[in-house]
Amino acid sequence: MPAKKPAGNPRQKEGSLFAMAQQQFLAAAEAIGLEEGLRQVLGACKRELTTSFPVHMDDGSVRVFTGHRVQHNIALGPAKGGIRYHPSVTLDEVKALAMWMTWKCALVNLPYGGAKGAVACDPAVLSVTELEDLTRRYATELFIIIGPTEDIPAPDLNTDSRVMAWIMDTYSMMKGYSVPAVVTGKPVSLGGSLGRYEATGRGCVYTVVAAAKKLRLNLEGATAAVQGFGQVGMVAARLLSELGVKVVAVSDSKGGIYSAKGLDIPAVMAHKSKSGQVSSWRMGDRITNQELLALPCDILVPAAFEQQLTASNAPKVRAHLIAEGANGPTTVEAHKILGDKGVFVIPDILANAGGVTVSYFEWVQDLQSFFWEEEEVNERLRRIMMRAFDETYAFAQKRKIDLRLAAHALAVNRVAEATKARGIYP
Ligand code: GLU
């Protein structure tokens, strides 16, 4: 991950992300007739920690970084959610992502609440030592709120199993004994789960398979474009191509490539791991991320950042099926435009729930110190994703609403039920 060059690719900001999450929540609250008191409880973030902390840089200087950890809701269990490193992260964004984690976990019936964390930094310009020191200090700052029964971090944008190992070790050093269940997405050698790395992309493809059946779309020979060639997009592209889908375009932060004949995904993956980018691949045409989103294809997988499909580019989308590998890639306005065009959108909290689902498996395995075969992990993941898809689809049909509203309504209802059953303390 850390190479000494800037990450670039400023993410688009189309207004407050938390306002977007709130809008989606309120639409769901309306759909299920949620009472006012519960709207207030579930609409608010329970805990928000912001911390500024110093890190020794390699040149001898000291730099202060700012990080956050937000626990949106813990009615159903410990808070759960990833940690992202990116120069432009804000508390507003972390609050939105934490709220989405609450709904995502509830939708796939995991005994978790929702959380998210972030540090404003560009890991691409930090050395490995700087990145480790930053991570260990951030983990120390979070020590007061994280833990295997309190709040369990995981990887997200620009963080990986190595970052999780540092967090696990830092937390364990402070406790005086090893606590593998404090984070998920760890290396397998430390109690990580087989299948966790691929889980988000794999889960996303399971939902595409389910949606294609509903749409009577034959995946053999269907075409797909994947935005983002990181942990989610790369795996989704590979698994789609293994199913016979022609992946005609992929992109990363530096741009994309397009070939109407279909790309050789394993070869593009090898090129990306060598050169750090897909757009210098020798085959196909160079395209921008915007061009990718507007390509003629059956399936579009936005698996990069939030707010990529907006009111300005949604009218140009030509795909029939969108599977949201990223969190919040579609603005509220864009969602409406896509709905009016009849695009079948598998919403983020469903399409990308595979990651946290296998995080849950990892946590269960760590707590039991009993580890599963990869086939068992994948099969359990498939069953959970299929059940969540079927429940969401059935609810959407029954209520004549779209899948995003159905997914949010089901999830909000589950958290509301638990909150009501528990009552208000004291
Ligand atoms: N960062 C992932 C997500 O947004 C995974 C979170 C987790 O495994 O806790 O769903």
3D structure, described in words:
- The chain has 426 residues and is an alpha/beta fold.
- It has two domains: 39-190, Leucine Dehydrogenase, chain A, domain 1 (Rossmann fold); 199-351, NAD(P)-binding Rossmann-like Domain (Rossmann fold), CATH 3.40.50.
- The protein is 44% helix and 16% strand.
- The strands form two sheets. It has a seven-stranded mixed β-sheet, with helices on both faces. Strands 1-2-4-3-5 form a five-stranded mixed β-sheet.
- The longest helix has 26 residues, at 374-399.
- It is globular and about 55 Å long.
- The chain starts with 16 loop residues before the first helix and ends with a helix.
- The chain binds glutamic acid (GLU).
List bound small molecules. Answer: glutamic acid
What structural category do the secondary elements indicate? alpha/beta
Q: Sum up the overall morphology in one term.
A: globular
Q: Helicity level, as a percent range?
A: 40-55%
The separation of the N and C termini measures 48 Å
Q: What's the name of the CATH homologous superfamily of the largest domain?
A: NAD(P)-binding Rossmann-like Domain
As for the CATH topology of the largest domain, it is Rossmann fold
List low-pLDDT spans: 1-10
Put simply, the count of helices is: 14
H/E element sequence: HHEEEHEHEHHEHEEHEHEEHEHHHH
Beta-strand share of residues: 15-25%
Q: Specify the CATH architecture of the largest domain.
A: 3-Layer(aba) Sandwich
Can you give the mean pLDDT? 96
Strand order, largest beta sheet? 9-8-7-6-10-11-12
Biggest sheet architecture: 7 strands, mixed
CATH hierarchy class name of the largest domain:
Alpha Beta
Number of strands: 12
Domain module tally: 2
